[in-house]
Amino acid sequence: MLDTRPRVLDLFSCSGGAGWGYHLAGFAVDGCDIADRPNYPFDYHRGDALEYLAHLIASGDIERYTLVHGSPPCQAGCALTVGTNASQGWGGTHTDLVAPTRTLLDRTGLPYVIEQPNGKAKIRKDLSLCGEMFGLGVLRHRNFELGRWSTPKPVHPKHRGYVRGHRHGVRREGPYVAAYGKGGGKATVPEMQAAMGITWTDVHEELTEAIPPTYTKWIGTAFLTCRQEVFA
């Protein structure tokens, strides 16, 4: 049976947090990640995401996609990494694939989304999403650059309290869990799964890197609405 759904290419897909959200919004999803991701819930290519994207562009196979989503690694720009490195006096270099990802995405001619955590990553913050916007048990702020399309920014509501755990020697309780690291009151695997709405993986590393699917469900729905309005 012919699949007539719009198709999204999910680059640097990790375990599929972003991909699942697009699936919920009505997309068919193809992923690509350099690591083995047996828990990824959709069709998946294992390999270098930028090499794969360049291949799709050169072969013309990119034309089967309606939207491309990329979550390139940028440890140099992540607020958590930057703060830790500064406090420890670490000065190592880190991979920053945001700029080369954008260059290739521009070559596709397709609408795209680039996702990054809060920090110094050089992207336009066309959207900034937070778990509180969706009633989640994590805050997990993420910024999104939108290429070749736009949508109004949602209002960022006031947080209801603290993130549970130890910070600067102080233990606090709150309505959110810390879905990163271990110890110090950080979330357990079941707590992270429940807080983010992720059920298909129980791998700690994959959960700490994932974005809640609700974010990309919102983005995918906004994109399809915008697309319908353009062609109406």
Note the topology:
Elements: E1 7-11, H1 17-25, E2 28-33, E3 43-46, H2 49-59, E4 67-70, H3 79-88, H4 98-108, E5 112-117, E6 127-129, E7 142-147, E8 165-167, E9 170-172, H5 189-196, H6 204-209, H7 213-231
Parallel strand pairs: 1-2, 1-4, 2-3, 4-5
Antiparallel strand pairs: 5-7, 6-7, 8-9
Helix pairs in contact: 1-7, 2-4
- Structural classification: alpha/beta
Biggest pleated-sheet summary: 7 strands, mixed
Distance between the termini: 27 Å
**Nearest-angstrom radius of gyration?**
18 Å
Give a brief rundown of this model.
Helix content is about 30%, strand content about 15%. By secondary structure, the chain is of the alpha/beta class.
Structural account:
- This protein has 232 residues and is α/β, with parallel strands linked by helices.
- It has 7 helices and 9 strands.
- The strands form 2 sheets. It has a 7-stranded mixed β-sheet, with helices on both faces. It has a two-stranded antiparallel ribbon with strand order 8-9.
- Helix 1 crosses helix 7.
- It starts with 6 loop residues before the first strand and ends with a helix.
- 37% of the residues are buried.
- About 7% of the residues have low confidence.
Tags for this entry?
single chain; 232 residues; alpha/beta; two-stranded antiparallel sheet; 7 helices
